[in-house]
Structure formats: structure tokens, C-alpha cells
Write a structure and sequence with these properties.
The chain is about 80% helix and about 0% strand. It contains 14 helices and no strands.
């Protein structure tokens, strides 16, 4: 009961933050303009964006299988794809829950240890972070006049602000972490002496070793060029999702692929925020990105709402379908 209450409070907190952020971006807008834009939108382009999203996750599943292969396992592509989609759906409830969820599903149907799968997911996420940082650098360089101040405001400034806060109080900051480290070392050493031969410690050591094995799979890939191709296709399809949604509205239909790249990169940062489904953060950052390209704020927000809604709808649709189909497709395995 207590765990359920904590989970509900966590969900409510993250959702509340997202709703507040969404309210902040909507409160000063002409809701009539936004409503009319959405009502007259060409939703067929949004359906095409759903198709691109589906294909991007097929390539994500193929890429994940490549990371799993060095561990000595060959999961079915349908199981990997289904696990990815259910994971995305789970992230809409609680941020980062999806990573654990998809590993648990693949463990159920292909009997791959969860700890090893978690290592491959962390490796995959590290590659995605590196990719989006490279793309961010490309956007800033190509569109330097527009993007330099924008990148500073939404990416660099929050990081440097935290660093400055630590630098303004160096001695207390240093003493705090030094004391904390000393306490952790002393307590950890005493615990290690007491429990190193216990079943619990042996189990933890097993989990860590499996996790590290999964984390190291990228260095063991046999066909890295194919892995990089899958990565490129994933992000290209993400960009196409942003691009085709431009044609949903006359006000954004003239925007080109460079703008789509900028929207994808900064929108991806909005999705990465610790709120359910990027609610609020995605809308703020995508709207402001489009304002840089001369789109009125209300029109940019209408685009952000449609784009975000399309992606959430895809996650729910494909997530629910695969969650229902996986037990049927693996009937013999689980029997």
C-alpha cells in the first residue's frame, strides 16, 4: 500500500510539473487562434508522421538486437520491437520507467537476464545522447545567428548556473562532498566485511557484472557500420516526423529540413526533461524554436501541440497493440 501511494505521488508530481509548464506557455496565447489552427489542420500529414515513428522504432529494435548479440542471445525482432513500444508507453506514466519495463518484457519472452539488458539500454542511451549533442552542434553552427543565444538560454545557461552556484561556495561545497565520501567509504567498508559472503551480496555482485557486460557490448559489435546506419535512420525518421507535420498548417508549410532538424533536436531535449511525456517542456522549447524562424507564437504552439499529440498517440497506439499481441505471439514460449 505504501509503495502504491509513493508511486501515485510521484506520478502526480511529475504530471503536475508538466501541466504547470504547459499552462505557462498557453496562458498568454490566443486560444481561439490555436483552436482554429488545430481544427483546420491537415491531419493526413500527422498520420504520415506516425508511420515514420513506427519505422524509426523498427530500426531501434534492430539496433538493440545488435547490442544484445554479443551477450550470446538472439531475441525475436517482434519481441524487441514490442518491448521498445511498451517501454515508450510506460515512460508516459513515469519518466525512465520504460527502460526497466522493456528489459523485463524481453526477459519474459526471450529469457535474457534483465541486468545484462539494462547495460545494453544504458549503452544505447549514451549513443543517443552523443548523437543529439552532435546534431545540436550542427544546428548551432549552421544557424549560428539564430541558434547561439537560444542554445545558451535553454542548454548552456542551466548547466553553467549550477556550476557557478558550486563555485560561489567552494569550501562548503568541497567539505560537504569530502565528508559524504568519507562516510560512504567507512560505512561501505564495514558493510562489505559483514555481508561479502551473504546471498544478498553475491546476488548484487551478479547484477553488477551482468550490467557491466551489457554496457560493454558496443565495443564488441561486429558490424559497426550497420549499427551506425540504423542510428542515422532512426534520427532521420525523427527529423521527417517534424518535417511532415509542418504541412499540417499553412503557416509552417514553407519551413525546410534545416528547421525540422532544429525542431527535432530541441524538441528531443524537451522530451528528455523529467516530466511525463515531455508535457510542457516540449511545447515551450518547440514553440520558441519556431518563433526564431518567424512563426507567430500561437501558430508555433499549435504545431507543438499537434506534433506532441501525434507522438503520444503513436506511443499509446503501438504500445497497447504490442502489449496485447506479445503474449499471443509468444504462446509457445510462455506455455
Amino acid at each position: 500500500m505504501r509503495q502504491k501511494l509513493i508511486s501515485l505521488l510521484r506520478i502526480a508530481t511529475f504530471l503536475g510539473i508538466g501541466i504547470v509548464l504547459l499552462w505557462l506557455v498557453v496562458r498568454n496565447q490566443d486560444l481561439g487562434v490555436i483552436k482554429n489552427n488545430l481544427a483546420s489542420a491537415h491531419w493526413g500529414w500527422a498520420v504520415l508522421a506516425l508511420l515514420f515513428g513506427f519505422l524509426s522504432n523498427v530500426f531501434r529494435a534492430l539496433r538493440w538486437n545488435m547490442l544484445i548479440a554479443p551477450l550470446g542471445y538472439k531475441p525475436r525482432l517482434l519481441n524487441t520491437f514490442g518491448s521498445v513500444m511498451v517501454g515508450y508507453m510506460a515512460n508516459l506514466a513515469i519518466p525512465r520507467l520504460g527502460e526497466l519495463m522493456r528489459c523485463a518484457l524481453l526477459n519474459r519472452y526471450d529469457k535474457i537476464p534483465v541486468n545484462k539488458l539494462l547495460g545494453t539500454v544504458v549503452a544505447e542511451r549514451a549513443i543517443d545522447v552523443a548523437t543529439i549533442l552532435v546534431l545540436l552542434a550542427v544546428v548551432v553552427v549552421v544557424e549560428f545567428d539564430r541558434m547561439s543565444s537560444f542554445s545558451y538560454q535553454f542548454v548552456i545557461e542551466p548547466i553553467t548556473q549550477r556550476m557557478q552556484n558550486a563555485a560561489n561556495h567552494p569550501l562548503p561545497f568541497f567539505l560537504f562532498w569530502l565528508t559524504a565520501l568519507a562516510i560512504v567509504l567507512v560505512v561501505g567498508l564495514q558493510l562489505y566485511k559483514r555481508v561479502r559472503h551473504s546471498r544478498f551480496f553475491i546476488r548484487i555482485r551478479y547484477l553488477i557484472r551482468g550490467f557491466m557486460a551489457g554496457l560493454q557490448t558496443f565495443g564488441q559489435l561486429r558490424r559497426r557500420h550497420l549499427f551506425l546506419l540504423y542510428t542515422a535512420l532512426i534520427w532521420f525518421l525523427y527529423m521527417m516526423m517534424s518535417y511532415v507535420c509542418f504541412f499540417c498548417f499553412p503557416q509552417t508549410s514553407h519551413l525546410n529540413m534545416w528547421v525540422a532538424l532544429a525542431v527535432m533536436v530541441f524538441g528531443g531535449l524537451g522530451w528528455a526533461a523529467p516530466v511525463q511525456g515531455g508535457i510542457g517542456t516540449f511545447h515551450i522549447i518547440v514553440t520558441q524554436t519556431l518563433v526564431l524562424y518567424g512563426i507567430a507564437e500561437a501558430n508555433g504552439l499549435a504545431y507543438a501541440i499537434l506534433s506532441h499529440g501525434t507522438q503520444v498517440a503513436g506511443m499509446l497506439l503501438f504500445g497497447l497493440l504490442t502489449l496485447a499481441l506479445l503474449p499471443v505471439l509468444n504462446r509457445k514460449t510462455t506455455a
